[in-house]
Amino acid sequence: MRKPSPGELWTLNFEMTMGVMAEVEPEVRELGLEMKEFFLLGKLDDHPYPADLARALITPKPTITFMVKRLEAAGFVKRQTEADDLRRFRLTLTPSGRKTMEATRAILDEAFGRRLARLSAGERAELLRILVLLAEKHADPC
């Protein structure tokens, strides 16, 4: 078996991820959410400020502003000014936003689960081990 290049592996991973997202997109839209907005909601607890969200999502600040305004209008996000700096505001998920985020996560879990069902239990365990290894920011090359 030939050794695949890093680019091939990256591309396959990206195509699989995009395929799952494309598969669930219509169902997610029925919940009133775009896929990019789902990822924003998922980062909100750890990154409650728009500039932090932009860095975490590797997304331009104007795009974050646009998504936040839409999510706020939809009732998924609440904006609160900071008492010590009225120019800065913190974002929080509303109960409706959290419910929608969790419903979207369940939809994604089900779709990805169908892909994972193609693997044996051993292959899934090996995939988990490999993904954990790859997710480490500073792995020892030895």
Protein described:
65% of the residues lie in helices and 11% in strands. With 142 residues, it is mainly alpha-helical. It has one domain (6-135): Arc Repressor Mutant, subunit A (Orthogonal Bundle). A two-stranded antiparallel ribbon has the order 1-2. α1 (6-30) crosses α5 (95-116). It is globular and about 60 Å long. The chain starts with 5 loop residues before the first helix and ends in a 7-residue tail after the last helix.
In short:
The protein has one domain (6-135): Arc Repressor Mutant, subunit A (Orthogonal Bundle). Helices cover 65% and strands 11% of the residues. The chain is built from six helices and two strands, in the order ααααββαα.
What is the domain total for the residues? 1
The CATH class is identified as Mainly Alpha
How are the strands ordered across the major sheet?
Answer: 1-2
CATH-derived topology: Arc Repressor Mutant, subunit A
Helix content: 55-70%
What gross morphology would you assign? globular
Uncertain runs are none
Radius of gyration, taken over Cα atoms and rounded to an integer in Å = 18 Å
Largest sheet: 2 strands, antiparallel
Count the E strands. 2
Which keywords apply here?
mainly alpha, Arc Repressor Mutant, subunit A, 2 strands
Please outline the helices and strands.
Elements: H1 6-30, H2 35-43, H3 50-57, H4 61-73, E1 77-82, E2 85-93, H5 95-116, H6 121-135
Antiparallel strand pairs: 1-2
Helix pairs in contact: 1-5, 3-4
